[in-house]
């Protein structure tokens, strides 16, 4: 059916004549008496043709035509006038009207002019429809290509970047973020781009709780924040939640229906791609393991590490690299045989595999050296892992069986990106330097590993007649002898300042002495500390007047004479390791102090075991 026609004329007779004539030809006609009413009608509906008188009260036909052309430059307009000079006039030509008719209008002339104008209008409609179909086809073809590419690239790291790029493109979104389900079932932030501030993006979200129903529906939903509309797009494959995308800052100011539709299609393909990528990664891991130990080979590990370095640089994250070496494995092989040497190696890998996360990777670098990569782990976390790893190895039955005949010289080192280096070789080099420091430390030279806490304290303090402590250029300095009476208090003041200066640094601090008092320099120095200190701080001794402290955890040890006779500070953090142990006498204070990380770590571990203190 032909489109509607608007007739504008202050002459009732002409309005009625035109309406009857055009209606009989099958046109739908709306007739109004002036330009104001005509503009109101045009605001409510679209007309293929406007037939208007030139001379009308108020706004004339020329002005009305100009207003109509402002709204739609292709609007068909026929002018009707009693003046024959309107035809071919400069104004009419400039306005680009379809035709000019002179009253009284012949029926045949009117119908011919209307048919021509309506034909042009229909051609424009057809052209616009074809353009829309072409655009829709191009949009669909583009969407199809993007979907096929998501299925044709199984690399999970590439997929995570590509998914948010494609979703942002098809939804005209300037900002996007993607959470992908990790091995523990949580949604972990894997990629983001655009105008987003990372500190406002949660690192992990649980797919259960409030999100559960939304995710299971597998349909995009729209939300709004103070700044922009936000479109959430679940990635669900065969009922299994694989991820969640967040899109914001649309270029059009809001998300349209076609955005939601295209996002749903793309997300379904992306979910399948992510699922396939995870399966391929699992298969790669199975096929890239050492036959004897089940650890990954070095080529896979270096490739994995390079990807982790890229992610850490791209998103400002951190990770740690650990190296472990069985220094005396050749000796084990000679004395006990090749089978026992393999048994020891397998036992160590088995022990490490029990305490690592699903995202951690173990690789065999050589017969006696192994690498571990711990994503999103800072240096303090890496040091704690080294301690746990050594303890786990000592408890492994296969290792114990070998160590009954020959103790294993297991040493570990840690480095953290970007603190210790920004490429794989730098991180490995730093790990090996720290392994060398542990090999040269007093912990190994004095064979302190098997001693209880207070026995080690007595050995380290010694007496004025004890021999000098062994030294090594590679080891951190350790000293014993007379110390200043004020050293214990001065160190507390300096440590308190450092903790307040960097409250986000993780660490462990133990301060022990005869009495736990409110006027201890550490307690006074931390009175103004923020409540969210990342370091854990403990005071050990007999209760006096310290009931509670926001930054301190008191551990009351009533009647322990060993604590009453000694004062000690044990501090291990991301940036510092230090131990001071002293015993006050009548004439002088005798003490031992060191920055040897292995000794400090060993003392803290034994102190925790001595008094059942919870490890970090």
Description of the molecule:
This protein is α/β, with parallel strands linked by helices. The chain has 4 domains: 3-124, 3-Layer(aba) Sandwich (Rossmann fold), CATH 3.40.50.2300; 152-285, Beta-Lactamase (2-Layer Sandwich); 296-439, 2-Layer Sandwich (Alpha-Beta Plaits); 451-609, 2-Layer Sandwich (Endonuclease, Chain A), CATH 3.30.870. The mean pLDDT is 86. The radius of gyration is 40 Å and the shape is elongated. The longest helix has 46 residues, at 107-152. It contains 20 helices and 22 strands. The two termini are 79 Å apart. Residues 317-451 form the GGDEF domain. Pfam families: GGDEF, Response_reg. Keywords: Phosphoprotein. InterPro entries: Bact_response_regulator, CheY-like_superfamily, GAF-like_dom_sf, GGDEF_dom, Nucleotide_cyclase, Rev_trsase/Diguanyl_cyclase, Sig_transdc_resp-reg_receiver. This is Response regulator.
Short description:
With about 625 residues, the protein is an alpha/beta fold.
According to DSSP, the number of beta strands is 22
Number of helices: 20
Annotated CATH topology of the largest domain: Endonuclease, Chain A
Mean pLDDT, to the nearest integer, reads: 86
What low-confidence regions span 5 or more consecutive residues with pLDDT below 50? none
> What coarse outline follows from CA principal-axis ratios?
elongated
Could you tell me how far the N terminus lies from the C terminus, measured between alpha carbons in angstroms? 79 Å
Estimated radius of gyration: 40 Å
Percent in helix: 40-55%
**SSE class:** alpha/beta
Q: Strand share of the residues?
A: 15-25%
Looking across the biggest beta sheet, what order are the strands in? 16-22-21-20-17-18-19
> How many structural domains?
4
Domain Response regulatory: 4-118
Protein name: Response regulator
Pfam family, one: Response_reg
Domain GGDEF: 317-451
